[in-house]
Specification:
alpha+beta, 4 helices, 7 strands, about 30% helix, about 25% strand, globular
Length: about 210
Amino acid sequence: MSEGTLWSADLGAPLHIDTDANPDLWGYLHLQIDKKNFGEWLDLHLTGLAAVHGVDLTRKLRRFHKRFYEKKIVMLRDKLEADEAFIHHPVPLTRMPLVMHATRIHCEAPDTASCEGSTAFTVPHPGIPEWQQRTASLPFASPHLGENGIRVTRSYPADSTITMTAVTYHWHTPPGVPDVCLRGHHDDPDVIAAAMEALDDFARTLRLPEADR
C-alpha cells in the first residue's frame, strides 16, 4: 500500500455522523489514519476480539484482517466517500468483518416521494438478472433522524458460490438538513440474519452533530 493511498495525517477531525451505541458491540473504523496508528489500532482491535470470542489470534488471521481493513478503508474513504464507518464486534474473527458505513446526502427534495435516495436502493442492480435478486423494504423511523426512513435488504449472487446480502438504511430529512444513509454487506447471509436486530438498534442511535443541523 503506497503512502498517501491509505495513510493520512488528518486525524482527530470532528465526526460527521455520531452514535452512542454500545462500544462492546460497535467499534469505530478510522477512515483517516496514519500507518503507526493503524498498526496500533489493529493490534488492540484483534487482540480484544480474539479474547472475547475465545480464539487464538494466528498470523494467518491477523494477515487476513490487515488486508481486509486496508482495502476497506481505501474503498470507503476514496470510492464511496463515506463519512464514518463502524465495525460490528460480535462477528467471529474467522468470518469477514461486518462494517457499516454512514454517509450524509445533501437532498433538497421537499418530501420523501421526491427524494431519489429514498427509492434508489430498491431499484434492481442493472448488472444482475432481476430473478437472481431478492429485495425487501420497510419503513424505518429514527428517534434522531425522523420518521421518513426506510430499511432495504437485498440478496444477490457475488459469483457462482457466494450470495451477498446488503442492508441499507436511508432517512430523508427536511431541506437544509443532510439525509443520512447507513449501508453494509456481507458474504454470509447467516451473519446478516443473526445481526439484523443489532443492526436495527444501531441504526436508531445515529444522529447528526448539532453543527450539521
